[in-house]
Amino acid sequence: DAHLKSTLFGHPIGLYILFFTEMWERFSYYGMRALLVLYMTTETLGDARGPGLGWTSQEALALYGWYTMLVYVMSIPGGMIADKLLGQKKAVLLGAVILCIGHGVLVFTETWAFYTGLGLVILGVGLLKPNISTMVGGLYPQGDIRRDKGFSIFYIGINTGSLLATLIIGFVVAQWGWHAGFGLAGIAMVLGLVVYLWGQKYLTHVGNLEVQDIKEEEESSYGTLFQNLLISKKQLTVTIALAILSLFGWYSLGWGYGLLFIFLTVIAALMMMIYKELDSQQDKDRFLVLLLSFIMVIIFWGAYEQAGGLMNLYADTKTDRMLLGMQVPTVMFQSLNAGFIIIFAAIVASYWAKRKLKGKEASSIFKMAIGIIIMGFGFLFMVFATMEFEKVGSSSMLWLVMAYLFHTIGELCISPVALSFITKLSPVKYASLMMGVYFAATGLGNKVAGILGESASELGEYAVFLGILVFTIIVGTLFLMLLKPLKRLTHGAEDNEK
Ligand code: GLN
């Protein structure tokens, strides 16, 4: 009907509904996230912003690491629920409602409210984030060249939310205290829910549970997947090997790593089951390419996410932040990334679209490999920064600005591109699950980033930054060398896009 045919700036109106829903969701997520560590480490007495939890920074960072990882890992069950039970559209709705409740609970000052609120946010993001991303893909027919650009526009929404939140929430907390800050996140999420409900008429054709899926249930549900595991000896062997590795990890490195290995085991088993379950060689090959590209995703975010950790500390303690006689607050550096995204997203997307139309190489794997290399180059500036610090005892802000610029351009080559790529390559019946696995991979990257960041206290920043620079460039180059075989395995999923 008419609602579905109308477009704005060449894209379906549904894109803008999802844009604003996700913008408010990310506002609440990044706003709350910005407060989290500060709130946990603030003393229980005598702070103008109200009592904090009085934790040590190590305790706070540990919870923060688990929280940011779990938020994305829950995208796997979130995706499964969409594929098998609700469809993406209802899963997003449920996620949004749970998020409103979760942020609402955080307004209360009791300890139970803190944990309950965090738990609900984890569940809510898990249901909303992967499924809203899959819905963006659903707006475009296969082979539609606008899809990549649609995801870039969507990505601008994400970062507008994050930029607004990080600029505003600090002031709100300074004025009215912590729980007002959490409340603001809650209000943002309510706005997101309102936009989503209002815009339903533009989304009638996407994110629905496929009717034939239910009929096929008998043959291809997750239930039979688990039976497959018992059938194949090869799979069982690999799973047992990984399980043993998990136990080993548990004993030698602590329960945190043990859990991480167990989690990896479960994912590996799940992926093997799905691979076996796919009926055509084309689906199998495409699935394999997706999994391989997730290696790039983990490495990318593992390096990139130094932003909030090591680079943040570097800005705080080793950078000369005087500008026009005033000290630039450390947190301002965290807004650079979102700002750069908003400026460069359209430019980068148009560049790739033009290249593609000219018939030059612009496949997703190519862009992702280039993205990793560009992001890696950003660390060259951090290496220069540490060298300057060694010489004169402080380093220029410009190094950080340049590093964030390269990180952002790299992010634009990999992150919206990967979202789009997943919606092109995933087998339809596992589309949401694969999006969930992607976000879980980014969550894993976050965890890797934390581990790398911690190692700097032993190895020094210079070694860590240089190591990341060299490693990411090698990985990117390797994927460029593998481009041809990998593209062959996609069976032309990106050819003839018009
Ligand atoms: N910054 C992006 C977002 O919030 C990417 C996050 C991710 O992929 N882990 O959507």
From TrEMBL:
The lineage of its organism: Bacteria, Pseudomonadati, Bacteroidota, Flavobacteriia, Flavobacteriales. This is Oligopeptide:H+ symporter. InterPro entries: Dipep/tripep_permease, MFS_dom, MFS_trans_sf, MFS_Transporters, POT_fam, PTR2_symporter_CS. It is a multi-pass membrane protein. Keywords: Cell membrane, Membrane, Peptide transport, Protein transport, Transmembrane, Transmembrane helix, Transport. PROSITE patterns: MFS (PS50850), PTR2_1 (PS01022). It is found in: Cell membrane. It holds the Pfam family PTR2. Residues 14-488 form the Major facilitator superfamily (MFS) profile domain. The chain crosses the membrane at residues 61-79, 91-108, 114-132, 153-174, 180-199, 236-253, 259-275, 287-304, 331-353, 365-385, 397-419, 431-450, 462-483.
